[in-house]
Design brief:
By secondary structure, the protein is low in regular secondary structure. The protein is 14% helix and 11% strand.
């Protein structure tokens, strides 16, 4: 568990977890600020997840999608989801 003094991107109001919690990609998501406020299409995410389950992780690296693994660091646009 992360403590409040060290928030990570999953605590950010703008971060969206892209895959189901039982997925091997459960820690992957994207920032709404990087996608112009648009959610990534569910069908596209399902395709990426299926390929990842088959060992093909290349689509996770497509820069335009903006997918990344939850980091224990924040960016300058971080806005805490649960303000204290």
């Amino acid at each position: 568990m992360h403590d409040e003094s060290h928030p990570h991107c999953a605590d950010c109001l703008h971060f969206v977890l892209a895959f189901h919690t039982n997925s091997p990609l459960a820690d992957w998501g994207y920032c709404l600020l990087q996608t112009g406020g648009e959610e990534l299409p569910r069908e596209r995410l399902r395709e990426i997840e299926e390929k990842a389950q088959q060992g093909d992780l290349q689509e996770l690296q497509i820069k335009e999608l903006g997918l990344f693994e939850v980091l224990e660091q924040t960016c300058d646009k971080f806005e805490h989801f649960y303000p204290f």
